[in-house]
């Protein structure tokens, strides 16, 4: 489980480092930190390891995009899937540090769910970046719409969290 | 991440952040209290040290659950068999049974709670709960087989297996006396009657039962001594009750426990349950025998004290019992023989002083006419009890 999480995390970190250009070292360090946090969580059973590891990997990728070429990164859907897999497998590895007998059905369903989520993440990513492949449209209105969409998304999740 | 995407004008970051947002939104929208209940079956189990006991946690839910983790809080003295005491199962609507097996390593009364954790897909939310009533496991100590136990000096009125000192109907020959009206013909000793010229009849000792009180000193903070005391008390109680004697228990320590003397199979379980509930409770309050309920110490009872001879309160209580005329015998369970000295000259000196103090205490009781033997668990209990029977014979001579 932990090996799978680290493999996915390492792939994301390598992609980010390759994309970063001149800032490759800093981005690689952030990616390595993400891998290290995932490893720490998996080895010690620290439940916070997976979210912080995912955050570090996402930050590394964000840094690489900021420092890298302006062209759209076609690997973004794969990076999204990789981060999802790293986070889920890292969390599962941390859970399994407490001795637990898993029924076969539970393992199969959870592996299926992680892979399905990764595929769905890749698909969603592909759908989201596809419009960006066309001619760039920019301006204050577009930016305002983007900010409004972010605020709306956060508000929806917050409302759902309060209701749950 | 989404704000960074807007700020940097990089849709790739939206692609990275969106799956997590979608997972959170979908998961939270579908989230609902699971309504899972759990209970242990059976609720109580009895076993003997070394046995394995099986129990199951029955979980039920009106809806299908993605993953339910069931865990037992296994206390020291019990060991889970066949893997960790936690299992993750998928629960389809209805109920399912999650079996566990536990090995009973040590005597005692154990409470095993069962906890459940219901996880939603991808662990977005978890719900914790507990089984309504925990499993109670009562593990009785392995009872060392004893053929004989120290016999009480005085017997009681009911029929038993002890030979009474009085004359009456019985099996063991006691005396001869001239024939009296009402004597049964089969009691006539024809040989003596022929020799003496008048009818003589045999007199026998009747078989009677006795009262035995097991006095457990649980003041001393030594788990080894308590373990030895409980093992010895279990073996003694079993052998006395098998012989139709009445057996009672006094647990004299930080918490006073007692079982009134009685006979029969049910009393065996009462006594064993009382013994396995015995524990060392630290207390600095002075206690003497006056706090023991009077009916617990019937007149003429044999009081068998199982004590490490370490606490002054227990020592004073035993001396008071002797002064009140109880037939008292002491089994010293201090385990001096199996407790090695600490390293170094000071440790060696302390150990020697400790052993000397115990020898002094034993000598003091012997001077009072109380037989004392030592049992450290290395030899069979029967050996120490044989020494006790010998010592009691000698002590009676001293008393008389």
Any idea how many domains of chain A?
Answer: 2
Mean pLDDT of chain B: 84
Main beta sheet strand tally, sense and closure of chain B: 6 strands, mixed
**CATH A-level architecture of the largest domain in chain B:** 3-Layer(aba) Sandwich
In what range is the share of β-strand residues of chain A? under 5%
Order of helices and strands of chain B: HHEEEEEEEEEEEEEHEEEHEEHEHEHEH
How would you characterize the largest beta sheet of chain A? none
CATH class placement of the largest domain in chain B: Alpha Beta
Which term fits the overall shape of chain B? elongated
Q: How far apart are the first and last residues' alpha carbons of chain B, in Å? A: 97 Å
As a percent range, the share of strand residues of chain B is 25-35%
SS element count, helices of chain A: 6
Secondary structure: helix percent of chain B: 25-40%
Lateral arrangement of strands in the main beta sheet of chain B: 18-17-16-19-20-21
Keywords summarizing the entry:
heterodimer, A: about 160 residues, mainly alpha, 2 domains, about 80% helix, about 0% strand, B: about 400 residues, alpha/beta, Immunoglobulin-like, Rossmann fold, 3 domains, 6-stranded mixed β-sheet, 4-stranded antiparallel β-sheet, 8 helices, 21 strands, about 30% helix
